[in-house]
Specification:
alpha/beta; Rossmann fold; Dihydrodipicolinate Reductase, domain 2; 2 domains; nine-stranded mixed sheet; six-stranded parallel sheet; 11 helices; 17 strands; binds nicotinamide-adenine-dinucleotide
């Protein structure tokens, strides 16, 4: 159900002055982590009230990083009122209503739990955590906080690509009928031997490699679009192709993980062991009978960010490829056989989820808009309204984490792994 009114895109619309009461009713945000996701989220919190009518427009209160000079420059560039080098500052900051946890995976639990216990809403990056045990601790904290009206959110941002949200709606409206197949692949190629030993290649920080990074998105998208749950992983392969990588300083860690790495000389201090997968493939069964395949890799040379999902149902099929993120391919199997064929739907019409919020139809949106839409949905929910499509909370993200864990166990123990083996507390 769309409850948020699109804002007018008229270039002649006068900017309304921010009144004191609006500012008071706003949503005070603190951000922890200021690199890749820190930038994407800062942009989203800063922009969402310009595209969506929000009762509680975000106020960018404080950004927390590790390096004082860098964090101050980051705060000034992205419009944060204050910079801090101690993330625990946000716990006692009365102007902060929500903490955005955008740090490496092993820090999600400690930071999120502390924030929830301090009465702050939390929007945490994915995967929920680096371990299933920590993810469960986060869910217990979220359950306790929920009783006090404190909410949790997870940045599974691809749900908010209009085409993915539209696929979710088509399934919900019964347009695909009974679902037979889910075929999901997330292929990247930045993880060759030239890429240094970033935190993303260290299991004590990341938990896993391409698996937690990319399969997490695929599992979430598959669950979100089908509305169904995976009940069993039926075989998996885990592979680490590049066993040793160059060690770099913490300062170049995040920089190196961005596209700036390409061609840059990264000062190295010898080499160290990569302790995560470069690729994980697995098969799975859904509760309502669909069967699924998932593949995540950072070494699919020639595929830079090919996040694809295809779903085949009795009445129709959908296909999504993030490299053409504005489009959803649709096959209507109810048509006369001689009229059947794939149609390419440009999901930018006002009738598509999020379509009316940005530009006129076919004036395409990009990567950042998924985050802007998620920031808007979170702000809407915390303002007493509804999100355009469902938002994942910690409880929901734990289901994805259980599937991730089941696939790893299946690969290492060479057996089928039912989810009921993992989801107990
Ligand atoms: N939703 C998505 O599509 C998406 C994309 C990329 C990353 N992520 C997730 O976002 C999270 C962050 O990834 P990233 O790519 O932004 O990483 P990054 O390396 O670019 O940035 C990490 C940030 O965390 C900060 N940090 C590290 N340790 C800290 C500490 N102890 N205290 C305070 N800050 C600390 C670093 O200084 C840096 O600012 C990860 O969980 C990752 O899986 C999600």
């Amino acid at each position: 159900m769309t409850t948020q009114k699109p804002k007018s895109n008229s270039p002649t619309r006068d900017a309304a002055p921010i009144s004191a009461s609006t500012a008071k009713e706003g949503l005070g945000i603190a951000l922890i982590g200021t690199k890749f996701m820190g930038r994407a989220h800062s942009n989203a919190w800063g922009k969402c009230a310009q595209f969506f009518d929000l009762k509680r427009p975000p106020r960018l209160v404080v950004a927390s990083g590790r390096n004082a000079q860098e964090t101050a420059a980051f705060a000034a560039q992205w419009g944060w009122s204050r910079a801090s080098t101690n993330w625990r500052d946000v716990l006692n900051e009365s102007a902060v209503d929500l903490v955005d946890v955008s740090t490496p995976n092993h820090l999600h639990a400690e930071m999120s739990i502390a924030c929830l216990e301090a009465g702050k809403h939390v929007a945490c990056e994915k995967p929920l955590s680096s371990t299933l045990a920590d993810a469960k601790r986060m869910v217990l904290a979220a359950r306790a906080a929920k009783k006090k009206g404190v909410q949790t959110f997870v940045w599974f941002n691809y749900r908010r690509c209009s085409a993915v949200a539209f696929a979710h709606r088509l399934v919900k409206e019964g347009k695909l009928g009974r679902i037979f197949h889910v075929r999901a692949t997330y292929l990247q190629d930045w993880g060759g031997p030239e890429t240094p030993l970033l935190w993303r290649f260290q299991s004590d920080q990341a938990g896993s490699g391409a698996h937690g990074d990319l399969n997490a998105h695929l599992i979430d998208m598959a669950r979100f679009i089908t509305g169904d749950e995976i009940i069993e992983v039926v075989g998996a392969i885990e592979e680490t192709f590049i066993k040793e990588r160059a060690i770099v300083s913490a300062a170049t860690d995040a920089l190196a993980s961005s596209s700036k790495l390409k061609g840059a000389k990264v000062p190295s201090k010898g080499s160290g062991k990569s302790t995560v997968d470069d690729a994980v493939l697995f098969l799975a069964r859904f509760k309502h009978g669909a069967i699924a395949s998932f593949e995540a890799t950072r070494l699919a040379t020639g595929n830079q960010n090919r996040n694809c999902i295809e779903i085949n149902g009795e009445l129709g099929s959908v296909k999504f490829n993030f490299e053409r993120m504005n489009e959803l391919q649709w096959w209507d199997h109810t048509l006369d056989a001689k009229l059947r064929g794939w149609s390419r739907i440009m999901c930018t019409d006002a009738g598509h989820p999020y379509g009316g919020h940005y530009w006129p139809a076919a004036h395409v949106v990009g990567y950042e808009h998924g985050f802007v839409s998620q920031a808007a949905d979170i702000s809407a929910v915390l303002g007493g309204g509804a999100s355009v499509v469902p938002l994942p909370d910690f409880e929901d993200a734990l289901k994805t984490q259980c599937v991730l864990e089941a696939a790893i166990r299946s690969a290492r123990e060479h057996r089928n792994v039912p989810i009921r083996e993992l989801d107990k507390f």
